[in-house]
Design goal:
Number of domains of chain B: 1
CATH topology of the largest domain in chain A: MetI-like fold
Distance between the termini of chain B: 53 Å
Number of helices of chain B: 12
CATH class of the largest domain in chain A: Mainly Alpha
CATH architecture of chain B: Orthogonal Bundle
Number of helices of chain A: 14
Order of helices and strands of chain B: HHHHHHHHHHHH
CATH class of chain B: Mainly Alpha
CATH superfamily of the largest domain in chain A: MetI-like
Largest sheet of chain A: none
Oligomer: heterodimer
Shape of chain A: globular
Radius of gyration of chain B: 21 Å
Helix content of chain A: over 70%
């Protein structure tokens, strides 16, 4: 690497920039194609007959047909799985916010010597590999008699998402000017009122960011949903992966399932892309 | 369930277990391949995007898309790529490279590579966009001085942008490291279940197999402890190394 740096050093900037941009565009577009082509393939395949899928992988279907969706519904009950996923995701979101908001408020507004320690303990939560806790979680859920109960996921997912949610919310709340709460305190508001009446409205942008990030993560979660739920209460991710387990591989069926599982997340991505990117950056740095 | 304290017997078995050796080797290969590709390419991609040349907005959205796709959906998508009649083979046939076609997931020499490729495919774009965001927060004046000195973009990328984002580079390494140790086992579970033979048996998947398929709970938890300790040691090492190169140090 150093050798390259030095050989380029004396070149005129303009020439080397031209070359750099040319190579940059070439590689970036090549990579973009590598991402887009499989996605296009999935979207197209969902509307195609299994025989034509691999004969002309990127050819458009002759006529739009929804047979694959109907079949996928019959095979793994995608509608129910989608419903379960929504129920679990919304339930977990509510629980995360109820717990994380006061915690973040406490961290952001009552600085004692303990608060940085508490915050770094929350930070450690990111570093636990999911596989290291999967067995204890399974055993606890079984002991509680909650295997195959979606409530188990609603209780567990917040544990995965609380550390990042609290830390992101706390860093957001630290930017809220103190004058507002001071004047409210003078007017006789108590802590709870300051939190709900003043902080909550001002924190909405931060809350939206964490809600969006949590939605994506919880909706897409596979491993714990797989071991904690069984047939009738499986989430959409499990249903999609089960489409493969038919006797022969019917790729149109799989593509239809994958497409349905992607739609909610992609809608959210389209509306909140900037927040998602910034939030994920902030989240990874805080790790 | 008989409960008997067996001291370190599970660990002793682990040391002698050939499957465990294989899992260590495969996870090691996975780590190395990803570490020499993803963070570097992602950084360069992020730098390219941070120049904000025409088209960077749409490219950024495309590059971030894999991060929105769940592991289950990604695996199903890659299955369509790797199937014997899948789009990778049909692409190779179309460009006249028929002799390169393989049953990618069913061949002991290509299966692990096929699994690793999924992480590279999504990782470059995701971390590239995060690098873009990290680089965008740097003040422009930093580049100005170098530009006046006649430095080209390649030099600016490695001499100015890279040292300034080295801490984030370390973060990317840590996240990748944890993903490979633990999360990546999901792709193995969804696509190959460790096979063919033991070609894609990784540490993470071995734990899953022992815990939920072979049902040797204690043994699986011994693997879990190995994963946890490896993760901890790896994170500390990565931190040490990147902080050495950091400006603040």
């Amino acid at each position: 690497m150093t050798a390259l740096i030095f050989t380029h050093r004396r070149k005129k900037p303009r020439e080397s920039s031209w070359f750099f941009l040319l190579i940059g565009y070439f590689l970036a577009i090549l990579y973009a194609l590598l991402i887009v082509i499989p996605l296009v393939f999935i979207v197209i395949s969902a509307f195609k007959d299994n025989t034509t899928i691999f004969a002309s992988p990127l050819g458009l279907p002759d006529k739009l047909q929804f047979k694959n969706f109907v079949l996928a519904q019959e095979n793994v009950n995608l509608l129910r799985a989608t419903g379960i996923s929504f129920f679990v995701t919304v339930g977990s979101e509510i629980l995360v916010l109820l717990l994380a908001f006061p915690a973040a408020f406490g961290l952001a507004r009552f600085s004692t010597r303990l608060s940085p320690i508490i915050e770094s303990i929350f930070g450690l939560g990111f570093l636990i590999p999911a596989l290291a806790i999967i067995m204890p979680i399974y055993l606890m859920t079984a002991r509680a008699g909650m295997i195959n109960n979606p409530l188990a996921l609603i209780i567990f997912y917040p544990a995965l998402r609380l550390p990042i949610t609290i830390i992101l919310l706390a860093s957001f709340m630290r930017k809220i000017p103190r004058e507002l709460e001071e004047s409210a305190a003078i007017d006789g508001a108590n802590i709870f009122q300051i939190m709900t009446k003043i902080f909550l409205p001002l924190s909405i942008p931060g809350v939206v960011t964490v809600v969006v990030l949590n939605f994506i993560d919880i909706w897409n979660e596979y491993l714990f949903a797989l071991i904690l739920m069984s047939s009738d209460n499986r989430t959409i991710q499990i249903a999609v992966s089960l489409l493969k387990n038919q006797r022969s591989i019917d790729y149109g069926l799989i593509a239809a399932g994958v497409l349905i599982s992607l739609v909610p997340v992609y809608i959210i991505f389209v509306f909140f892309q900037e927040r998602i990117m910034q939030g994920m950056l902030a989240g990874s740095i805080k790790e | 369930m008989p409960r008997e304290f067996i001291a370190f017997q599970n660990y002793a078995r682990l040391i002698a277990d050939r499957n465990f050796h294989m899992a260590l080797k495969n996870t090691g290969i996975h780590l190395m391949v990803v570490f020499v590709t993803v963070p570097w390419l992602a950084f360069m991609l992020g730098f390219f995007l941070s120049l904000r040349k025409p088209g960077y907005r749409i490219l950024r959205i495309i590059f971030f898309t894999p991060a929105m796709i769940s592991v289950a959906a990604q695996s199903m998508m890659f299955m369509g790529i790797y199937l014997p009649e899948g789009i990778l083979n049909s692409f190779l046939i179309n460009i006249g490279l028929e002799e390169l076609t393989r049953v990618w997931l069913g061949n002991t020499s290509t299966a692990l590579g096929a699994i690793i490729a999924i992480d590279i495919w999504g990782g470059i774009g995701f971390y590239g966009v995060l690098f873009f965001a990290a680089l965008s927060s740097l003040p422009n004046e930093l580049y100005e001085a170098a530009r006046l000195d006649g430095a080209g973009l390649w030099v600016m990328m490695w001499r100015i942008a890279f040292p300034l984002t080295i801490d984030f580079f370390g973060v990317v390494l840590v996240l990748q490291f944890l993903w490979i140790l633990s999360g990546a086992a999901q792709n193995v579970l969804l696509l190959t279940r460790g096979g063919p033979g033991r070609a894609t048996l990784t540490l993470g998947y071995y734990l899953y197999d022992m815990a939920f398929l072979t049902q040797r709970l204690g043994y699986s938890q011994a693997i879990g402890v190995v994963i946890f300790i490896t993760g901890l040691v790896g994170i500390i090492l990565i931190r040490r190394i990147t902080s050495k190169f950091s400006y603040q140090a």
